[in-house]
Structures are given as C-alpha cells and as structure tokens.
Task: structure prediction
Amino acid sequence: MIPGLVLVIIHLAGAAHALKKGKDLWALAIILFPFFALTAYLFRALGPDMRSDKDVLTEEISPNQIPASPKVVRMLEEQVEINPSVQNKKNLADALVQQGNYRAAIDLYRSCLEGIYDNDPAILYGYAIASFLAGDYAETLALIERYQGARGNNRQHQIDLLKARTHQALGDTDQALEIYQAIAGIYPGEEARYRYGLLLKESGNTQAANQVFDELERNVKNSPEYYKDSQRRWISLTRKARR
Result:
C-alpha cells in the first residue's frame, strides 16, 4: 500500500509541476496516463539537454499536445474514423510524428491540403517537419517555399532554421551558414546560434565558431533564470562542441 501511495504522490507532484510551468495538457496526460506521460514529461520537460533533435522538432509542431502514447494514438485514430475532418487528421498526423511514423504522418498531412486548407500554414509546417525527419530534404524545401508563399508568419524563425538545417543536410554548407548567420541573433532561444557555431567549427573556422559560442554562453549567463532553464540543452551541447 505504501509503494502505491508513493506512486500517487509522485504522479500528483509531476502534474502539479506541469501546471506550474503552464503545461496544462501535460498535467492532464500525467493524470490520465500516469506511467507513460510522467516518464515522457521528466525526459522532455525536466531534462531538455537530454532531448534529441527529433524531440525538439516534434514539440514545435504542437507544443501543448498530449504526448503520443499508443493509447492516445488509438483514440485519435478512432476520432478520424468517426469524423475524418482536417483538424482530426492533423491531430493524428502530429501524434504519428511524435511516434516516429513519419510516412503515415506525411500521407495524413497531404490529405489535409485541400479546399480552404490547401495552403494552411499549420499543416504545411507539420508536413515540412515530417518530411525533414523522414530524410526527404527536397520535399522539405518545396514545402518551406509553399509555407512562405502562404504567408505563414507565425513560425517564420522556425521555418528559417528548418531551411538552414535542410541545406546543411543536403551538403549546401555556404547556404546553410548564410541563413544561420542571418537568424542567429533574432531566433527565440539559442538553438540557431548553437547550430551556426557548430557548422562553423565543422567547416574548419574554429575561431569564428568560438566567438559564436562565447556569445551564446554570455547571452544565457546574463538572462533570467527561466531563460537559463529553457536553454540548458544548447548550453550543454555548446560545452561539448568546444572539446
């Protein structure tokens, strides 16, 4: 009985922490799916330096979405079967990206792009990320261009970063560096600055890379605690890149 009570207290503490951080859907998920959701929350929310690039990208598609446990995915699939609306299909596609089922997600995103949703920025953004994670870089660039043509301005910095990463993945280092340099100082957070410094180092420009890393560390050091907490991943990776 005592171990069970301890588990309940741990789950409630996790839910309370999520609420305090403004992550209402995470709190709900921890209550509904205690083991899976709490494990995912501890990994993704409390240990940002441990998150993979995939975790960072998939969270950007729908930051407040309940984590995609198999039970959640089944529920979303049932909703699509009952009502195959664009929103229901997009919700399922977002969850499938979390699960790593990029091809199925791509098919769903593609099916959403019809009628008044033909150039919907939110759908195009998820579609572009799924294509990038699937390794389809040419398609990613085409979707980015389509997103920008649709005047999707809400995630312009994130789209620019995705474009830089796509050029980098294609081996177009000069183009990637140009975009990274343009957004490093205006991107919300330190990811763009970190990636810019890392690519400079990988290109053999160690001195310029160290200058970028110095700026990143100085910027975080002089920022409020909440910002330091949110940027722990990039600080950790920067320190590793300097070795």
About this structure: The chain has a mean pLDDT of 84. The two ends are 49 Å apart (CA to CA). The chain has 15 helices and no strands. Residues 51-154 form a domain with the Serine Threonine Protein Phosphatase 5, Tetratricopeptide repeat fold (CATH 1.25.40.10).
